[in-house]
Design goal:
Layout (H helix, E strand, L loop, with lengths): L1 H25 L12 H27 L4 H26 L4 H23 L7 H11 L1 H10 L2 H27 L6 H9 L2
Helix pairs in contact: 1-2, 1-8, 2-3, 3-4, 4-5, 7-8
């Protein structure tokens, strides 16, 4: 029963993001908040974000269908690294569109971080180190967040604050569920349901 629920909580989001990947390309018209952003560039970024989500949830689905092999777990963790990168890169790219040098610096920082986390996952390090590594990566995201809040207008920050609260709140709840293993039988599935938001 647990593996079936795991496949559902991974497979349904994979299909959901696959739909949005093609919807973005075929139908979405992007109204850019800044003249510094090209609508085509924004469309490509949204497509890449959706595509990374499809790959992440697709690999996770295969991991649970294939009997949870150690090699598939490494690819599952790689997918988590890539999805975390897209959760960071898309807001950084759009939020710092008027500051290309700062944007490039933050993007390079997080790309290096994702490559680092991916390499660590494929090395033989203790599983206990995975959570502190991913928690550190999420912790790094507050640097561009506070920088963006400092340089943005109050109205823009107020507009995005509920979404930011939801993202960081869901990450915190996911971490709490993962660390405490509560509730025992459905913590992994609950973690994925919250992470998908």
């Amino acid at each position: 029963m647990s593996e079936t629920f795991n496949v559902i909580t991974h497979g349904v989001p994979a299909l959901y993001y696959l739909y949005w990947a093609f919807y973005d390309i075929l139908y979405e018209q992007y109204n850019c908040p800044s003249e510094a952003l090209d609508p085509d560039e924004l469309a490509i970024l949204h497509f890449l974000a959706s595509f990374v989500a499809v790959l992440t949830f697709g690999v996770s689905t295969l991991y649970h269908l294939a009997g949870r092999s150690p090699q598939m777990l490494k690819w599952d963790m790689t997918g988590i690294s890539c999805m975390l990168a897209m959760c960071i890169l898309l807001p950084v790219h759009t939020g710092f569109s008027c500051f290309p040098a700062v944007r490039a610096l933050y993007e390079a920082l997080f790309l290096v971080t994702v490559v680092f986390t991916t390499l660590i996952v494929h090395c033989d390090i203790p599983d206990e180190l995975h959570v502190p590594i991913y928690t550190s990566v999420v912790g790094l995201t507050v640097i561009p967040l506070f920088h963006w809040m400092y340089i943005s207008g109050e109205d823009e920050v107020r507009m995005f604050f509920p979404r930011l609260l939801w993202v960081y709140g869901s990450w915190a709840i996911c971490l709490l569920i993962f660390l405490t293993k509560w509730p025992r039988r459905c913590n992994h599935e609950l973690w994925h349901v919250l992470r998908e938001k």
